[in-house]
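fyi for ur records
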Amino acid sequence: MNITENIQKAKELIEEADAIFITAGAGMGVDSGLPDFRGVEGFWNAYPKAKELGLHFEEMANPECFESDPKLAWAFYGHRLHLYRDTVPHEGFAKLLELSNTKKYGGHVFTSNVDGQFQKAGFKEEQVMECHGSIHHMQCIDNCQGVLWSADETKIEIEKGFKAKEPLPSCPHCGAIARPNILMFGDFGWEYARTDRQRERLSRWIERLLAEDAKLAIVEMGAGTAVPTVRNTSEQIASRFDVPLIRINPRESFGAAIQLPMGAVEALNEII
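which gave:
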């Protein structure tokens, strides 16, 4: 694999494209200083208290935790909510937005990240599909009314022992505990209507590109193999348009026509 050649190929694809499909996993946020929960050690490095308690990410990112220990669940999600709210998106987001704005059909984002960084960087709500939901939206643990509300007013104080301070967020309709509108492990109560609407918008955009024979460039960043939703989506769309996939990933760039084993900012600075 010749990285210089791959950078040149990626540049040409992007320059010639009428539209940009941006796909992103957890690695996209690393250059903004966000933690990557890759492997149990990565999670424990970000949350030493979880290590002390012997808890794994799958146990914390689980609706059952809101039932059994809501103070612990909200300590974890409250910390993440404030972290994502306070984080400034790295320069790569602005580069992608600027690039999308130069294209005839613009750009669309597909991400497994729940941090809202693309919207914060200036992408319009209708340009983004968040397949795992968003921490910036809330729902009832029982999904009593099938509605969401904004998490903008939610503030979580965390006490010693990694417990959220009461009062915990609650459903304005029935008073039950509230939770983020994020698809968790073993999650049968996730309200997916918002994500479904996002999926429909993305599908309409894709169908229009196909109907009008538009040239599409696909740029994937920081999408790992542990939960391969983003990688699978990138590969499916690349196959439908019969175009090479540009895969940016410092550890897992394999399996794509154009492999760039680099971080997101470094690679985007080279190819845009």
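The first strand starts at residue 19 and ends at 24. thats all i got for now
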